[in-house]
Amino acid sequence: MKAVVYEKYGAPQVLKVKNIQKPKPKDDELLVQIHAATVTSGDVRLRSSDFPLLFWLPARLIFGLFRPKKKILGHELAGIVVEIGKNVTEFKVGDSVFGTTTMLNTGSYAEYICIPQKWKNGVVELKPENLSYAEAAALPIGAMTAIYLLEKANLKSEQNVLVYGASGSVGSYAVQIANQKESRVKAVCSTSNFEMIKSLGAKSWMDYKKEDYYEGTEKFDIIFDAVGKTSKGKAKKVLKKGGAFVSVKMLTKEKDDHLKLIKDMAEKGTLKPFIDKSFKLDELVQAHEYVDKGRKRGNVVIEVLK
Ligand SMILES: NC(=O)c1ccc[n+]([C@@H]2O[C@H](COP(=O)([O-])OP(=O)(O)OC[C@H]3O[C@@H](n4cnc5c(N)ncnc54)[C@H](OP(=O)(O)O)[C@@H]3O)[C@@H](O)[C@H]2O)c1
Predict the structure, then answer these.
(1) Is the pTM of this model over 0.90?
(2) DSSP per-residue letters across 57-94
(3) Closest Cα to atom 36, ligand 1: which residue?
(4) What CA–CA distance (Å, rounded) separates 190 from 30?
(5) Using CA atoms, how far apart are residues 149 and 253, in angstroms rounded to an integer?
(6) Are the CB atoms for 76 and 40 separated by under 8 Å?
(7) Which domains does the chain have, with CATH numbers?
(8) Smallest Cα–Cα separation from 96: which of 233, 276, 290, 266?
(9) pLDDT tens digits in sequence order for the chain, 306 residues long
(10) How far apart are CA 115 and CA 123, in angstroms?
(11) How far is the CA of 169 from the centre of ligand 1 (A)?
């Protein structure tokens, strides 16, 4: 099968298209033919080994000290189950699924992958029926992170919520999920992304290059840092008493229940992935070059079958 492999950390050019052995499912695994994957900000960080100084050594110990342990990147996928191990009860051949590859020893930049039906760090679920594979692949990590952090912030109805960095993947889902609770969502992003965040349900907006949200008079119940580029210290200036600050820098956890909720919201039409650009598997170097710029809007998809 075709896969994109990286043997060393570095620039996008370390990603090489190779022919490798198609995997065989173990007793508790599904063999999934991947139709679509994504390039997340986590993928480009792992490829370039761009970890904050304090976390550099622990991260390299987990992900590979001298060279990457997980040679195939790609943390999200959507595809069809083509074979199952003898102990698999939750899925059958022919099911369309979507999910993550978190902490598995291989990723979704490949034509096939084996995924356990259940494991500690990641999740797989039946794909939302109304979405394409490309759309479904763009949902799990960004939307689960948004749900986890909004739950941590104890989101209730009709609150004032500020989403800082609303045009990224996590931000675009946080705006939509807060909006479902009839919150008044204020989005902080570039002027060029105002139309995008309006279409996702934001009620007001502000360009971070022109104004500082923490210098205003408006107060918020929740400040959601969706790009890790603001701080609790700044947020405190405009948080209501008892308000919550949450950030993508916090540890989050992938939960089955959250992926089920995402499927449900997608099928009801209340959660939609924003797809910025699509690339083919052979174009992963270009896709990583694009995401490396830090300006992607929503999600970047890899159409593996094209
Ligand atoms: N904790 C977790 O489990 C978890 C999960 C997923 C992601 N993350 C982290 O969350 C972060 C965001 O990831 P993502 O994929 O959602 O988004 P992303 O693709 O990294 O964000 C890109 C967007 O951020 C905007 N942006 C860049 N600098 C900004 C600034 N200073 N202020 C406001 N907006 C800014 C860009 O818009 P402009 O062009 O307008 O600047 C662009 O639309 C990453 O650091 C990622 O590693 C954490």
Answers:
(1) yes
(2) HHHHHHH-SSS-SS-S---EEEEEEEEE-TT--S--TT
(3) 295
(4) 42
(5) 10
(6) yes
(7) 2-139+273-303 (3.90.180.10), 142-247 (3.40.50.720)
(8) 266
(9) 999 999 999 999 999 999 999 999 999 999 999 999 999 999 999 999 999 899 999 999 999 999 999 999 999 999 999 999 999 999 999 999 999 999 999 999 999 999 999 999 999 999 999 999 999 999 999 999 999 999 999 999 999 999 999 999 999 999 999 999 989 999 999 999 999 999 999 999 999 999 999 999 999 999 999 999 999 999 999 999 999 999 999 999 999 999 999 999 999 999 999 999 999 999 999 999 999 999 999 999 999 997
(10) 9
(11) 7
Exposure class string for 27-58: b at 16+ Cβ within 10 A, else e: ebbbbbbbbbbbbbbebbbbbebebeeeeeee
One-letter amino acid for residue 286 of the chain: Q
CA of 227 to the centre of ligand 1 (A): 4
CA 163 – CA 130 distance, rounded (Å): 28
Q: How many whole angstroms separate alpha carbon 93 and alpha carbon 30?
A: 9
User: Which atom, in ligand 1's list, is nearest to the CA of 249?
Assistant: 1
Q: Identify whether the C-beta of residue 242 lies closer than 8 Å to the C-beta of residue 210.
A: no
